Amino acid sequence: MRRTQVGIVGAGPAGLMLGHLLHLRGIDSVILEVRGREYVIDRVRAGVLEQGTVDLLRGSGVGDRVLREGMRHEGIYLAFNGRRHRIDMTALTGGRAITIYGQNEVVKDLIEARVATGRPLHFEVGDVAPHGFEGDAPALRFTVDGEPHEVACDFIAGCDGFHGVCRSAAGNDLRVYEREYPFGWLGILAKAAPSSSELVYSNHERGFALFSMRSPAVTRLYLQCAPDEDLAEWPDERIWAELQARLQTDDGWHPNEGEILQKGVTGMRSFVAEPMRYHRLLLAGDAAHIVPPTGAKGLNLAMADVSRLASALAAFYETGSMRLLDEYSDRGLRRTWRAQRFSWWMTTMLHRVPGETPFDYRRQLAELDYLVSSRAAMTSLAENYVGTPFE
Ligand code: FAD
Ligand code: DHB
After folding, report:
1. Rg of the chain on CA atoms, in Å
2. Which numbered atom of ligand 2 lies nearest the CA of 100?
3. What pLDDT shows up at residue 158?
4. Residue 367 has pLDDT above 80, yes or no
5. Percent of the chain's residues with pLDDT above 70
6. Taking a C-beta distance cutoff of 8 angstroms, is the pair 84, 77 a contact?
7. Is 254 exposed, middle or buried (0-12, 13-18, 19+ CB in 10 A)?
C-alpha cells in the first residue's frame, strides 16, 4: 500500500491549492479527482477574486498569469430605478480591490504547478472512500479503471465540493444549517467586449441581473431565473432581450451582445456543516459550506480555508503540535458565517422573491437608496465585498 502525508479528495480550487501549499512546505500529498482534467479546467464558475486570494496566489508562486491577465477592479455599480450608482471600494477600504480572473484559469494554473512538482494528481478515479479517520490510520480507497487502490495517510482533506463523499463520511456527527432560495441564476459567457469596465448588480422589477466579464473580449452575464429553469426555453434572442431589459439604464448604458459561448443554470443555497474537522478528516471549501453567488464569496472562502489548513498541517509536521488543527474549524466557521451573512444580505436585497408583496419591493428599493447615499453603508458593503485579509 502507498503512503502519503495528506490524502486530498477533489481537484477543485481548494484541493489543488492545498496540495500546492503543502508542497511548498515539503509535505507530501495525493490528490484524487473523480472527473477528467479537461472537465475540471473547462467548468465555468466564479470570476471575482478577493485581494486575499490574489495575495495567496502571488505569495505561493502561482500568480504570474493572474497579475498579467487578471483585471483589477476598484469599484462596482448597483443599478435600480433606471440608474447606476458606483461604489468606490478602493477609496472606502484604504486601497483594497478585487480582481476578475476566471476560476477555471485559477484551476489551470494550479494544475500546471502541481504537474511540475511531480507529486501525484489522479483524474478520473472511481469509488473514492475515506476510511479510518476516526483513529490514527486514515486511508483513501479508490479505483482506477475498475482496479482497487489504497493510500494510507496521516490526514484526509475533504475538498470534494458540495456533492462529495467526505462530508457524508462523517455521518450524523456534523450539524448542518441550510437555506434554499426559490430562484437560481442563468449564466452565459458571450464573445462581446464588456461595455462597462466594472461589474453591475441590478435589482430590476423583472428580476435580478448581473453584468460581469472575463477578459477585454468576453462578457459574463447572469439572470435570476427559477431554480430548475429549463435552458431549452431560452434561445439566445430571449436571453439577450431579458438581459437588456433588466440591465439597461436611463443614461443609455447596456451590455454589448455577441456570440453566446456557454450557458448554464445554477440553483442557490446557503449551507454550513459544523464542525469543519472530524478527527483526522478536515473539510475545506464547498464540502463544508455553500454561499449563494451574489456576494462572490464561494471560491474565496475555499481559498481562505486551505490557506489556514496548510499552516495548521505545517505546524503539526514541524512541531508535533495539534493546536492550529484544533482551531481550524472555529476560525473557519467565523469567516464562513460572516460570508454567509453578507451573501444572504446581497441576495435578499437584489432578487425578486416569488410571492413578495409590493411593500417588500419598496423596502428593497429603500435599502438600496440608503446604501448608495450613506458612506457608512457603502463602507460596510465595500469591506465585505473586497474581503478581510486571510489569517
Ligand atoms: P469544487 O470546485 O466543487 O471542487 C470539488 C472537486 O471535487 C470537483 O472537481 C469535483 O469533481 C471533485 N469531487 C467531487 N466528488 C468527488 C469524489 N467523490 N471523489 C473525488 N473527487 C470528487 N462562486 C462564486 O463566487 N461566483 C459564481 O458565479 C459561482 N458560480 C458557481 C456555479 C456552479 C455551477 C457551482 C457548482 C459553484 C459556483 N460558485 C460560484 C461557487 C464556487 O465555484 C465554489 O465555491 C468553488 O468551486 C469551491 O471550490 P472547491 O474546490 O471547494 O469545490
Ligand atoms: C461573477 C460571479 C459572481 O457570483 C458575482 O457575484 C460576480 C461576478 C462572475 O462570474 O464574474
Report:
1. 21
2. 11
3. 98
4. yes
5. 100
6. yes
7. middle
Pocket residues for ligand 2 (CB within 6 Å)? 46-48, 199, 210, 212, 220, 293-294, 296
Residue whose CA is closest, atom 31 of ligand 1?
45
How close is the Cα of 213 to the center of ligand 2, in Å?
Answer: 9
Would you place residue 1 in the very low, low, confident or very high pLDDT band (cuts 50, 70, 90)? confident
Asked whether residue 226 carries a pLDDT value surpassing 90, the answer given is yes
Would the CB of 156 count as within 6 Å of ligand 1? no
Distance, CA 180 to ligand 2 centroid (Å)? Answer: 19
For 323, the 3-state DSSP assignment is helix
pLDDT in tens, 21-60: 999 999 999 999 999 999 999 998 999 999 999 999 999 9
Ligand 2 atom index nearest CA of 44 = 10
Point out the ligand 1 atom lying closest to the alpha carbon of residue 165.
18
Residue 298 Cβ contacting ligand 1 at under 6 Å: yes
User: What is the distance in A from the centroid of ligand 1 to the CA of 286?
Assistant: 6
Res 342 pLDDT > 90: yes
pLDDT tens track for 140-164: 999 999 999 999 999 999 999 999 9
CA distances from 199 to 71, 205, 211 (A): 11, 19, 5
pTM of the entire structure? Answer: 0.97
Residues with a catalytic annotation lie at 73, 201, 293, 297, 385
Give the span between the Cα atoms of 368 and 364, in whole angstroms: 6
In short, whether 372's Cβ falls inside 6 Å of ligand 1 is no
The DSSP line for 252-300 is S--PPP-EEEEEEEEEEEEEEEE-SEETTEEE-GGGTEE--GGG--HHH
Helix or strand holding residue 202 (H, E): strand 200-204
